[in-house]
Amino acid sequence: MINRRTFLHSAAATATLAALGIPLEVIAANRVKFGKASAFSFDALIAKAQAQAKQPYAPQRTAPREILEKIDYEALGKISFNTDYALFANGPGQFPVTFFHLGKFFQSPVHMHLIDGSGRGGAAVESEILYDETYFDMPADSPARKMPRGSGFAGFRFQESTTGDQSKLDWHKNDWVAFLGASYFRAIGDLYQYGLSARGIALDVAQAGQPEEFPNFTHFYFTVPEDNSDTVVIYAMLEGPSICGAYKFTMQRGAGVTMEVETALFLRRDIGRFGIAPVTSMNWFSEAVKATGSDWRPEVHDSDGLALWSGGGEHIWRPLNNPGQTMVSAFGDNNPKGFGLLQRDRNFDHYQDGVHYERRPSLWVEPLDGWGKGAVQLVEIPTDDEIHDNIVAMWVPSAKAVAGNNYRLRYRLYWQKDEPFPSPLARCVATRLGNGGVPGQPRPENVRKFMVEFIGAPLEKLAYGELPEAVLTTSRGAFSYIFTEAVPDGVAGHWRAQFDLKVDGTAPVDMRLFLRHKDVTLSETWLFLYNPFKTRTVYGN
Fold first, then answer.
1. ∠ at Cα 47 (44, 51), nearest 5°?
2. Mean pLDDT over residues 63-89, rounded?
3. Are the beta carbons of 513 and 472 closer than 8 angstroms?
4. Where does the record place the Glucan biosynthesis periplasmic MdoG C-terminal domain (predicted)?
């Protein structure tokens, strides 16, 4: 509906956008206010990041802190973006853009820009979308009404298609990707559920004696999409005390969400743990180990394992832990084919929660250029609640990250219910721990029993009476009661390996397991980090 306020905003926007050469149908869909236009290119953005990296870090100016602090959880919950002001609400493309408001928990301003590629001489130009309180619906007494114009935004999201089946989805309420907070972003995958997050970069995660640094995406640049395209392209500037960078995101909304990321990074100072393509998730407890009565639900996690596809072609599955102390595991490799944090357990009965952990997306990272020598590093941090992201997986190069270094990287992110390049081998689907020994007899000290389940076509092909062999290794301790058996659930190709591990002391234990038959490998490799300390103190052993 056109009213006086809408008309005035439209008129102001029209003058600026017409100067940029943006099509009239976009002008009609955008009533926001713009700053002056300036030339734009990705190369120029990279050059800007490189130049800024040579200068001392200067934090961005923020809105008055006394105002931001008053926009708390309750106040922010009463603020919603008015979709009349959404970018591309009436085309071109099919995915409108709406913005998040700044507040107590997201105080760093993010500046949004619109790019038009039809400037003078065909050169692209950009113009900043200026913050104005009228873009948001809020109570008359909201503290946000005191925010200065031009304060910036907290982040943004792409809404679902305006051309899809509106009987199933309302684009005003449903979004498929969101960038919010530092360099965090996430997507819903093909099960229409948010879960784990990605980041632009991770600096000094769990680095001894060094606090973690959280650089911010400070600017985003939106390209005008093509008509009815399923792909959107945005650019971003990242900056923190130790780093500057430029990013290009090409994001496709298909059955899941696929993002191609291209970035140029420049270091201001040395970094102890330089995490590329970081993935962040939550794992409180699973079927493997949980304290009796800790929670009413059987499992609570956004991801249940780290999957690796090594440069040598090995497929590895590492179940996630909630350890008693922060643990860092490194999986050395050369030019890895990919890695990801996955949610393999898709059975609602295993969670019993209306927030639908069984629908949380998996996220797979595929390097598009050789990343050389390094390691996929997994950081597991203790947590006593589901509100904390306590898992980080990332690629860390072998070469030291020192001031003056620069990096050009390309990789692809797959947000979907399963990994995009599954192994043809049987895969691990459950890891269970219990007291070692034999029922009815005294339980031996310092012994834990493990049940590891696999399912897949190679196990279906075993002839009647044939048993797969469990091939086990450990960094310390001794195995006993090792055997394999078909899981008696009637599912073809569903087998489990059982074994006891006796180990003294409290130091962590690294174990490796796979199934084979007559020298033929049947399963991916299961890796596990066992923490005797936590097992004793929390679960009794």
1. 140
2. 94
3. yes
4. 40-529
Distance CA 188, CA 194 (A): 5
The pLDDT tens digits of the residues spanning 101-123 come to 999 999 999 999 999 875 455 67
d(CA 147, CA 151): 7
Distance CA 125, CA 118 (A): 8
Which tens digits make up the pLDDT trace of 265-279? 999 999 999 999 999
The span from the CA of 284 to the CA of 380, in Å, is 10
The percentage of residues in the chain with a pLDDT greater than 90, rounded to a whole number, is 81
Token pair belonging to 324? 């008693």
Indicate the DSSP class of residue 401: B
Compute the distance between CA of residue 297 and CA of residue 351 in angstroms, rounded to an integer: 6
Backbone angles phi, psi at 438, to 5 degrees: -115, 135
User: Is the pLDDT score of 541 beyond 60?
Assistant: no
CB 196 within 8 A of CB 178: no
Which CATH code for domain 427-539?
2.60.40.10
CA-CA-CA-CA torsion for 54, 60, 61, 67, nearest 10 degrees? -160
Q: Could you state, in order of their start, the residue ranges of all structural domains in the chain?
A: 1-191+213-270, 273-399, 427-539
Average pLDDT (138-165) is 92
Radius of gyration of the chain (CA): 26
Which residues, including other chains, have CB under 8 Å from residue 452's CB and lie 6 or more apart? 428, 430, 431, 432, 496, 497, 498, 513, 526
CATH topology of domain 1-191+213-270: Beta-galactosidase; Chain A, domain 5 (2.70.98)
pLDDT at 379: 98
Q: Letter for the amino acid at 308?
A: L
Cα separation, 517 vs 454, whole angstroms: 14
Residue 497: strand pairing partners: 452, 484
Beta bridge partners of 202: 275
Distance, in Å, from the CA atom of 489 to the CA atom of 430, rounded to the nearest integer, reads 14
